[in-house]
Design goal:
Elements (H helix, E strand, L loop, with lengths): L11 E2 L34 H9 L3 E5 L3 E8 L2 E10 L9 E5 L2 E8 L5 E6 L9 E5 L23 E3 L10 E7 L17 E7 L7 E7 L6 E2 L6 E2 L9 E2 L7 H8 L4 E5 L2 H7 L7 H20 L13 E11 L1 H14 L9 E5 L14 E6 L11 H7 L10 E6 L33 H19 L7 H5 L2 E3 L7 E6 L7 E5 L16 E4 L1 E7 L24 E6 L4 E6 L12 E8 L15 E6 L4 E5 H4 L19 E6 L11 E8 L5 E11 L3
Parallel strand pairs: 9-21, 12-16, 12-17, 17-18, 18-19, 19-20
Antiparallel strand pairs: 1-8, 2-3, 3-4, 4-7, 5-6, 5-8, 6-7, 10-11, 11-16, 13-14, 13-15, 20-22, 23-33, 24-27, 25-26, 26-33, 27-32, 28-31, 28-33, 29-30, 29-32
């Protein structure tokens, strides 16, 4: 488990004004984080039970304006607490609201049940007099499409295709919903109990079991609605006359597809943990993992001895040696925590694959020794900084010898809500909306769910079902045939095994500018700029307006290269013991255009050449544009809209003719395809497929 570092966040003002990133941070205790780990903290935390008490207590009003109220709440034998309330529109969403007083973060905001008031509790008396603003999320620029223009999805060489892994499989599918009560399970440190509800899809008749078990968890959304109206509520359990919004039912399109290939798929309810967890500093991530774990316990019992509501239907039919978890939004981080919680058991079940779909990352912990994929939608108007990429970035080299692969999937044009049918406009439940904010080239609901189904089904078929036919979509070699070319980019980190990956240069620290990972020299020649950045508050990888774009600092350390001469290159020398690359499939790296450099000019699609030189001095070279250079496309458009994401450029070794792959002495990046340019890069490696 990694040790998150305390650092500053750039966040967006909602209520009053737009201001820059805050540096006034205080580190506090956080209950439930694995030993040795600390969450990123932007406010001094107040215990959940004290927050609950302060929200219930009237207190003494010390500041009262039309849209703002501050109350003093006494604590016997201690300094008082201060309850802050701002009136406006504050629906429950994926990221956290933050109160700032005099520019200092003082409290996380908790939406009132009706979404018309935001409340927070702090022990900082500055709220009595200081100017108060509310921010949403972690970014100092506007959401996608709010201003300016994002570039269209990158185009390059059309990728290879494979059959759609979400196409209907050989089994008919049965669907059932179990409801064991709205207060049926008590997670730790959250107060009241939460629901145990699951939407199950499974092969009709269960003719060939036992079947792998895959669990889904939704994210934060309104929890209740009044039938026949557009009224929603954020409380648990729902009041009399109100009904729970079945947020768990929004993934039936992929659950039915996966079940048709021989899986038991359960989408679990998380309304209770959403509402009750909102009073915790991290919104209840451990508790989400506990909810998933409880459902696994139920399925273990139903497979062993049966029980209500299924009787003996599933006895002997659930393969608990093959379990996968997908989570969306806050549920994405909950899926990561399900692995942590499971590994704390005396006898863990073992989670075999985790897919985080448009996830938040509040606790800044990650997991290793389990296949991991993070799906990043470029038109996400909720988790608009794509902070979930840190699950991948932080896990890459954390655990030496990690035998499991890691992936990111960038889905161009996808927003946050369309992955869940309940959250999408046109459904039968209130509270749904399009969070894409008019993002250019945005996918339709149908197109987005087609992409989501392909990668969710493909992930679990590969890593839980061990269906190797889908391997090419996870190395970046191919994409599902049902998707438009250029709509997705996959980055692949091969297992850290000698026969699966040979790291050439990770660009993980400043020393990597001069020495390859195996110990050879790195020699830049004719380069305008050659450097390294930590992507931290004090060493951002971008300049000017881009310095805090897409950042939950610290971010990804990376190399930076700019060129303006035709013979510019960087040579990576391989020492003895690392020169035989004949057992690998590809040379690859992750890269992105540097939007804050003028060197890219009007070049929308950068290009370069990779050359391999063997012990005889023979040279083979391949242009990025010949194998697919979409990752080198301009990702930030007019007005600064877009994302700065490093994506994979993959060079199949079969393209390098006429050299001895048993004795490669040098790898060269030659910047000979465009007049000038500037890119950031990381993770240079030879790799072998999954």
């Amino acid at each position: 488990m990694r040790r998150p570092r305390l650092h500053s966040l750039a966040v967006i003002a909602i209520a009053v004004t737009l201001v820059g990133p805050s540096t006034a941070l205080a580190q506090g205790e956080h209950q439930g984080v694995p030993r040795g780990a600390r969450p990123r903290t932007v406010v001094r935390p107040v215990a959940a039970d004290l927050i609950a008490a302060a929200l219930r207590t009237r207190g003494r009003i010390v500041r009262d304006r039309r849209e703002l109220e501050v109350a003093r709440v006494e604590r016997p034998g201690d300094e008082p607490l201060w309850r802050v309330e701002v009136r406006g529109a504050f629906p429950p969403r994926a990221q956290r609201y933050v109160f700032l007083a005099s520019g200092r973060p003082v409290a996380y905001g908790i939406p009132a049940p009706d979404g018309r008031t935001l409340r927070g509790v702090t022990d900082d008396p500055i709220v009595r007099t200081g100017p108060i603003v509310v921010r949403y999320g972690t970014r100092a620029t506007a959401p996608p499409g709010a201003r300016g223009t994002a570039p269209p999805p990158p185009r390059g060489v059309a990728p290879e295709t494979i059959p759609d892994p979400a196409a209907p499989g050989p089994y008919e599918v049965t669907r059932q919903v179990y409801k064991l009560g709205n207060e049926a399970f008590q997670p730790t440190n959250i107060g009241r109990a939460v629901e145990l509800v699951g939407d199950v899809h499974y092969p009709t008749g269960l003719p060939d079991g036992p079947y792998p078990l895959v669990l889904f968890m939704h994210g934060n959304h309104s929890s209740c609605f009044m039938r026949g109206t557009q009224n929603t509520d954020f409380r648990w359990p729902c009041r009399d006359g109100w009904r729970p919004i079945p947020n768990f039912a929004g993934y039936d399109y992929v659950a039915s597809s996966l079940a048709s290939w021989g899986y038991i798929v359960v989408s679990v309810g998380a309304n209770g943990v959403n509402v009750l967890g909102s009073r915790l500093e991290d919104t209840g991530m451990r508790q989400r993992g506990e909810v998933i774990g409880k459902h696994i316990d139920l399925w273990s019992e139903w497979s062993d001895v049966g029980g209500a509501p299924f009787g003996t239907t599933f006895v002997g039919q659930v393969d608990l040696a093959r379990i996968g978890v997908m989570g969306h939004s806050r549920g994405g981080e909950g899926a990561v925590w399900s692995v942590i919680v499971d590994r704390e058991r005396a006898d863990p079940y073992g989670i075999d694959g985790v897919l985080a779909l448009a996830p938040v990352d509040f606790t800044r912990v990650t997991v290793n020794d389990v296949p991991l994929a993070v799906v990043l939608p470029t038109c996400d108007g909720d988790v608009f900084d794509l902070q979930g990429v840190h699950f991948f970035d932080d896990a890459r080299y954390l655990d030496p010898g990690d035998p499991t692969p890691k992936h990111t999937v960038t889905v161009f044009g996808a927003n946050h809500n369309f992955f869940n049918t309940v959250w999408s406009p046109g459904g039968k439940y209130p509270g749904a909306f399009d969070d894409g904010f008019g993002c250019p080239a945005q996918l339709s609901q149908r197109q987005e769910r087609r992409a989501g189904a392909a990668y969710i089904a493909g992930f679990f078929r590969r890593y839980v079902g061990n269906e190797t036919a889908v391997d090419p979509m996870w190395t970046g070699q191919a994409q599902p045939e049902s998707l438009a070319a250029g709509r997705t980019l996959v980055s692949y980190l091969a297992p850290d095994l000698a026969n699966r990956r040979l790291d050439v240069d990770r660009y993980g620290d400043v020393e990597s500018l001069f020495q390859t990972f195996p110990g050879g020299s790195v020699v830049p020649a004719g380069i305008s700029t050659y450097g390294w950045c930590a992507n931290s508050l004090f060493d951002p990888c971008q300049s000017g307006n881009f310095a805090f774009s897409d950042r939950n600092l610290p971010g990804l350390g990376q190399g930076t290269i700019s060129w303006s001469e035709p013979n510019s290159e960087v040579r990576y020398q391989l020492p003895p013991g690392s020169r035989d690359v004949s057992g690998f499939d590809a040379f690859q790296f992750r890269a992105a255009q540097n939007p804050s450099s003028d060197a890219n000019g009007r070049i929308d699609l950068q290009d370069l050449t990779v050359a391999l030189i063997d012990g005889n001095g023979d040279v083979a070279q391949v242009a990025a544009s010949a194998v697919g250079n979409a990752a080198l496309a301009r990702m930030v458009g007019r007005g600064g809209i877009g994302h700065i994401l490093l994506n994979q450029v993959r060079f199949p070794l079969e393209e390098f003719d006429g050299i001895d792959l048993d004795d490669v002495r040098t790898v060269e990046l030659r910047f000979d395809r465009t007049e000038s340019g500037s890119i950031h890069l990381a993770d240079l490696a030879f790799s072998r497929g999954i």
